[in-house]
Amino acid sequence: MKTPLRIGSVDYKRHIDRNSHKFTMSENELRELLKAWFVISLAFAIVLGGLGNIVGSFLVASLSVGLGFIFHELGHKIAAQRYGCHAEFQANNQMLVFALVTSLFGIVFAAPGAVMIYGHIDKRQNGIISLAGPAVNFVIAVLFLLLLPHVSGVLTVVATYGYLINSWLGLFNLIPILNLDGKKVLMWNKAVYIVMLMIGFLVMNLRDIFQLVTT
């Protein structure tokens, strides 16, 4: 087996094994996802509200940042499984600890893990799998934005952070450097990359656009 290539939150391994196109998740993978979700949510909760208001901040972070992270990874996983590959998320324990440590200093360096993909994929499939994560974040961001006028109290805070963080997370992962998703998307199709980047900037500014239209 060759050394995996890390692409954003996705690691690709060439292997002759192929799964069906159905969505599958092992108990171990579910535990890995929940562990990463909990730690990332806790890290952002510390940054958002400090240790003095950890319960309320954790609720906000888990429903905004946490859900954005989970569905980003599931986007990669589902896309890979659609191509008949075996795909499974594995948490990076060292980076989860690092995220908690950095949160104590007011920042979060989050690289919680990766979807490990076993199967033969071409450049196009590679690009689509990589694109799936940021695309999911943009969809979630729009859903949170649409929810904003219909909620109040703590749900307003959740929806606001959900919109902002998922917009930012999608755009950040489209940066075409290092192991981020954007690098593989750009290598596959420059036009698709540019369109996706434009969609990301549009989503990021949708709230301001809505405010201008309604005033």
Q: What's the β-strand tally?
A: 4
**Overall helicity:** 55-70%
**Which runs of at least 5 residues are low in confidence (pLDDT < 50)?**
1-8, 12-19
Average per-residue pLDDT, rounded, comes to 87
Distance between the termini: 59 Å
> What oligomeric arrangement do these chains adopt?
single chain
Order of helices and strands: EEHHEHEHHHHH
What's the story with the biggest beta sheet? 4 strands, mixed
Number of domains: 1
Number of alpha- plus pi-helical segments: 8
Classify the beta-strand content into a percent band: 5-15%
Quick structural overview:
The chain has 215 residues and is an alpha+beta fold.
Describe this structure in words.
It is built from 8 helices and 4 strands. With 215 residues, the protein is of the alpha+beta class. It has a 4-stranded mixed sheet with strand order 1-2-4-3. Helix 4 packs across helix 6 (181-188). The model is unreliable at 1-8 and 12-19 (pLDDT under 50).
